[in-house]
Design brief:
Largest sheet: 5 strands, mixed
Organism: Roseateles agri
Helix content: 25-40%
Strand order of the largest sheet: 5-4-3-6-7
Order of helices and strands: EEEHEHEHEEH
Structural class: alpha/beta
CATH topology: Glutaredoxin
CATH architecture: 3-Layer(aba) Sandwich
Radius of gyration: 14 Å
Pfam families: Redoxin (PF08534)
Number of domains: 1
Protein name: TlpA disulfide reductase family protein
Number of strands: 7
Amino acid sequence: MAPPVNYVLLDGAKAASSQWKGKVMLVNFWATSCETCMHEMPQIIATHEKFKDRGFDTLGVAMSYDPPAFVASYAQSRKLPFGVAIDNTGEIARQFGRVQLTPTTVLINKRGEIVKRYVGEPDFAALHGLVEKLLAEG
């Protein structure tokens, strides 16, 4: 099961993983200093845009060592279309199995179960196929 987490988005809104119920969630741990993260971000955005109207959502989790100003600037300049949380204390990363390597991406089904964990850039074609399958589940 995905761990229960509370977080604050860049816009100051408070949120919690309990709000994910009934959605397929992609949780992407990233950092502005991570080249692979920067390389995959356009595909993370494209994935979000492709499925967002069908019960899919994305949460970008910036690592605790990433300067908040860099994260905010990146999110604004790239117009990230999904929520971004800054994991100031590292608690979100700890709850998700002590995430240290970026990018780490976790795919969660509508029941809140972790279906797949990717360390490094996912095969996006395979990821899209899995998302399609999860969205089709009752």
